[in-house]
Amino acid sequence: MTHKLTALKGKWAILLLPLVALALPASALEEDKVKHLKVEFVVGLLAKSLIREEKKALAACLTVGLLKEVHDQIEGSHISGRDLLADAVGCYAGVKLGVVIRPTYIGYTKTWTF
């Protein structure tokens, strides 16, 4: 467990950002950016729980945010750099926190007895 905590050294501030965003009222930041940050934080946690390699988990999470922006473009809006920045911060924090809380093994084992 110590090696996982050592990996966080110097990165604690970025991990606190989504928690601060969760605590702030939506009027304190643009509501849309807070949504992007929160959703991508959760996507980052999920990506890290499914993908062992940190860079691949981050890439998967960022892809989700990018696809959302492409969808917005198709629907008549525009691709927002600020949305992508909020996505990136949420992804990074979620993946980094996922490194700490990722269980070693999740699964089900059935023992057959006769």
Question: How is this structure best described in words?
Answer:
This protein is mostly helical and 114 residues long. The protein has one domain. It is 70% helix and 0% strand. It has five helices and no strands. The chain has helices at 2-7, 12-23, 31-50, 54-74, 81-101. Helix 2 (12-23) packs across helix 5 (81-101) and helix 3 crosses helix 4. The protein is elongated and about 60 Å long. 26% of the residues are buried. The mean pLDDT is 77.
What's the topology here?
Elements: H1 2-7, H2 12-23, H3 31-50, H4 54-74, H5 81-101
Helix pairs in contact: 2-5, 3-4, 3-5, 4-5
Mean pLDDT: 77
pLDDT under 50 segments (min length 5)? none
What about the largest sheet? none
Count of folded domains: 1
Strand content: under 5%
Query: How widely separated are the two ends?
Result: 39 Å
List SSEs in N-to-C order.
HHHHH
Percent of residues in helices comes to over 70%
SS-based class: mainly alpha
Question: Helix tally?
Answer: 5
Number of strands: 0
Backbone CA Rg:
17 Å
Shape call: elongated
What characteristics describe this protein?
single chain; 114 residues; mainly alpha
Q: Brief overview, please?
A:
With 114 residues, the protein is an all-alpha fold. The protein contains five helices and no strands.
